[in-house]
Amino acid sequence: MKILPRILAAASLIAACSSGASAADYSKRALPLDASIRAALIGKWTNPVDLLVIDIRSVDLTTGEVRGVEWPTVATKTGSSAAGTEHDVTGWISGAPASSNATTSSR
Question: How far apart are CA 102 and CA 22, in angstroms?
């Protein structure tokens, strides 16, 4: 389980809340997200390198938030999660063009 990104996200949320910051103004996005992005991302994706399945269940076109679950197809190391053990996944997407370093996974 990758806990560091979750800790950093929680810390930034706490910092924003404690500083009296108002909610983000998403109307000022540089690149609005198109509904086709949601259609392209929703579904189950496999990662043959890490032996994972990622099931993207929602994409918020206003904030760019992506939510779903992931699970290993096999236990890859001693002490790792058993195959089929689900873990919540949260991330964000941008309307910016893909970088030249972008990689792809297969469905």
Answer: 33
